[in-house]
């Protein structure tokens, strides 16, 4: 059974239930129950109309729960729901509303991520808990709190695309490697969003993800250590993914509404275009960083820009650009070390690599920086 | 989303404000302290921020490799060891500020006289998985 296909139906099934009058939290639980049933029953006898099957089963689950609740509380107010008929409406808009709801600004980033993966992605609480290395009970509470938080939000208003994109970017960029491939899931969800809304930044984010995902198998050595971009075996990059990313990016750029994701994707595309690291068009990359600085003003962008300037105009120019970046930024020492190394000041570079290793926020990067420091120290002896 | 370790020391941390050894508290003060810890963990689970909490025995064994074919050497406990970990709580929160806020609450656990201990807790970030986007 194609689990991704099954899960791709999740948002539209959920939306049908909500349109029929189910409240969001109860509808979401019912859809999860229906997905579990589908996983159990479909391998033996797949339905002709998978979505219709899921709607029917989810609605029945919802009514069962509603009736049980009603009986238990001796309240009559939920009974009226039985009579509700499905209202007609385009499924695409429903999907879109669900994205907005799950990324609602009233949610913390971690809650929005969890709710999006469950309600839009159709992942189980256990899968999400494993992906983020927290106990299942904790993730269940995080999701049910998130559902309560947004339960009062009206489902019929469009939201802010930027909040949705931030959530999807987080899923893509900050996943652990569990049994769920979060990067692939983020791409699937962004692709689905791009099909529902014509927006250059949605396309830009999708292109960005595809272009970075294309390098995945080249990013780590067999021993699990990080391989920097310049040293990656480019024959291992996924050319299909790159071609798709570039095509999507070009269409987005043609609309002439530049945003940060398009600019980031453009930088990734220039790297993808270079047959070897030495043939990278750093001049153009610096120009895109200038755009990004203008769009975001982000110190992280300024830091990465200093790296690009170092490649385009030499390490001294890079260090000059770096001097204008707040020295307390994470990875500042790592960038400085790299520029000093290229400038031939190996003693300073070795010291800075060691300093950067102490400040690294992830293990793979710390090990990488420690190796750089060790290699230079060995050469300086 | 980031994980932090809230580390509690038997020894090695600066002295707390309410610095009375636990074995000199009233029994009901000990119960109140334990209850506070349990309630705190339960509250974090409800807020979707709890990962793990464990207590450690004060004394352990030091072990090291002693060469091919030889059993490991064991030693200790060493009286001169300055730092002694009492236990920890692991939380998964949205920001460093939130981690500090929660550590502050945990440090307010009641001790002698039912007053907060004000003990020092160490807040240490976990190293994460590497980000996908690096440029």
UniProtKB/TrEMBL annotation, chain A:
Q: What sequence ranges are listed for the domain RNA polymerase sigma factor 70 region 4 type? A: 98-149
Q: Name one Pfam family in it.
A: Sigma70_r2
Domain DUF6596, by residue range, is 162-252
**Chain ranges of the RNA polymerase sigma-70 region domain:** 6-69
Q: Which UniProt keywords apply?
A: Sigma factor, Transcription, Transcription regulation
Please give the InterPro entries that the UniProt record associates with this protein.
DUF6596, RNA_pol_sigma70_r2, RNA_pol_sigma70_r4_t2, RNA_pol_sigma_r2, RNA_pol_sigma_r3/r4-like, WH-like_DNA-bd_sf
Similarity-based family? Belongs to the sigma-70 factor family. ECF subfamily.
Listed PANTHER family = BLL6612 PROTEIN, BLL6612 PROTEIN-RELATED
Q: Tell me what this protein is called.
A: RNA polymerase subunit sigma-24
This chain's source organism reads Streptomyces meridianus
From TrEMBL, chain B:
Pfam families registered for this protein in UniProt: YCII
Q: Which Gene3D superfamilies match?
A: Dimeric alpha+beta barrel
InterPro entries membership:
Dimeric_a/b-barrel, YCII
Give all residue intervals belonging to the YCII-related domain: 15-107
Task: Give the similarity note.
Answer: Belongs to the YciI family.
What protein name is recorded for this chain?
YciI family protein
């Amino acid at each position: 059974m194609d689990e991704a296909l099954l899960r791709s139906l999740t948002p539209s099934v959920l939306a049908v239930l909500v349109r029929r009058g189910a409240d969001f939290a109860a509808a979401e639980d019912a859809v999860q129950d229906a997905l579990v049933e589908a996983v159990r029953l479909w391998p033996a006898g797949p339905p002709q109309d998978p979505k219709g099957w899921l709607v029917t089963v989810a609605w029945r689950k919802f009514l069962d729960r509603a009736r049980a609740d009603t009986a238990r509380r001796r309240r009559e107010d939920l009974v009226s729901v039985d009579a509700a008929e499905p209202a007609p409406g385009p499924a695409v808009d429903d999907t879109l509303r669900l994205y907005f709801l799950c990324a609602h600004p009233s949610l913390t980033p971690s809650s929005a991520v969890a709710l999006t993966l469950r309600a839009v992605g159709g992942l189980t609480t256990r899968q999400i808990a494993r992906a983020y290395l927290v106990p299942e009970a904790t993730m269940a509470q995080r999701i049910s709190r998130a559902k309560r938080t947004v339960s009062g939000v009206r489902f019929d208003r469009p939201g802010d695309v930027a909040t949705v994109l931030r959530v999807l970017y987080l899923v893509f960029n900050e996943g652990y490697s569990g049994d769920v491939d979060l990067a692939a899931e983020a791409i699937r969800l962004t692709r689905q969003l791009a099909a529902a809304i014509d927006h250059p930044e949605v396309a830009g984010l999708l292109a960005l993800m595809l272009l970075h995902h294309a390098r995945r198998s080249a990013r780590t050595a067999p021993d699990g250590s990080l391989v920097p971009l310049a040293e990656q075996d480019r024959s291992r990059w996924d050319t299909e993914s790159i071609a798709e990313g570039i095509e999507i990016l070009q269409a987005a750029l043609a609309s002439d509404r530049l945003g940060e994701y398009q600019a980031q994707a453009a930088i990734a595309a220039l790297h993808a275009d270079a047959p070897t690291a030495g043939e990278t068009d750093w001049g153009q990359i610096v120009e895109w960083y200038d755009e990004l600085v203008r769009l975001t003003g982000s110190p992280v962008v300024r830091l990465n820009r200093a790296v690009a300037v170092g490649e385009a105009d030499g390490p001294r120019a890079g260090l000059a650009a770096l001097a204008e970046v707040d020295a307390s930024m994470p990875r500042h020492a790592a960038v400085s070390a790299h520029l000093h190394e290229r400038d031939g000041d190996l003693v300073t570079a070795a010291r800075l690599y060691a300093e950067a290793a102490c400040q690294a926020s992830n293990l793979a990067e710390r090990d990488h920086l420690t190796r750089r420091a060790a290699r230079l120290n060995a050469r300086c002896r | 989303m980031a994980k932090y370790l809230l580390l509690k020391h038997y020894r090695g941390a600066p002295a707390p404000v309410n610095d009375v050894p636990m074995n000199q508290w009233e029994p009901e003060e000990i119960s109140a302290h334990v209850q506070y810890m349990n309630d705190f963990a339960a509250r974090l689970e409800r807020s979707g921020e709890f990962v793990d909490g464990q207590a450690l025995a004060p004394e352990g064994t030091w072990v090291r490799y002693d060469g091919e074919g030889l059993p490991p050497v064991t030693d200790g406990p060493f009286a001169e060891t300055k730092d002694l970990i009492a236990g920890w709580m692991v939380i998964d929160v949205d920001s460093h500020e939130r981690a500090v806020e929660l550590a502050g609450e945990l440090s307010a656990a009641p001790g002698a006289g039912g007053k907060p201990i004000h003990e020092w807790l160490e807040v240490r970030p976990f190293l994460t998985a590497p980000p996908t986007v690096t440029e």
